[in-house]
Amino acid sequence: MQAEMQLHIRGRAMSSDIELRQEIRYSLGYIRSMIDNYSGLYSGENLTRDVLRFCDEMTDAGARHPRLQQARRLVEDRCRRLAQDTDRFALRDPAAIAASRAKAMAAIDMLQDVMFEWRKARVTAPSPGRLLRRKSP
Fold first, then answer.
1. pLDDT tens digits, residue range 4-51?
2. CA geometry: angle 20, 25, 29, nearest 5 deg
């Protein structure tokens, strides 16, 4: 009985992990499409600012989690590099642009993993002791 209950609790936790991961992946999909479609040809575009604003909205901008801040800095660096490589006034090398775009996407993937850890740590898990106790007859 106790083993069945623990399996049920783990199954529910795994299910919530999958849902949380999907939620984060879905939310970051907009950033991925921004990076994928960024051309650098329009004067009003500011990829770095737009991506960081969206990231900050997802993570409560004041979050002081060191890995989260490190991932954010990496995203900022990679987006800035992509913007430089796609600058309409610079020599545009398609190979360099593709490499910068891939590195920016990899930074978003890393941010996704860190956000998952951060969000999972913020969620308080129910105490299994309360679930496993039997009522007295």
1. 333 344 445 556 888 888 888 998 999 999 999 999 888 888 999 999
2. 150
Residue in the block written with tokens 């002081």: 64
CA distance 77 to 134: 55
The pTM of the full predicted model, rounded to 2 decimals, is 0.74
**Mean pLDDT, to the nearest integer, of 45-72?**
86
Give how far the C-alpha of residue 26 lies from the chain's centroid of Cα atoms, to the nearest Å.
9
Nearest to 104 by CA among 84, 73, 77: 77
Confirm if 12 and 59 have CB atoms less than 8 A apart: no
Residues in contact with 118: Cβ distance below 8 Å, sequence separation at least 6, in sequence order: 59, 63, 65, 67, 68
Token couple for 63: 């979050």
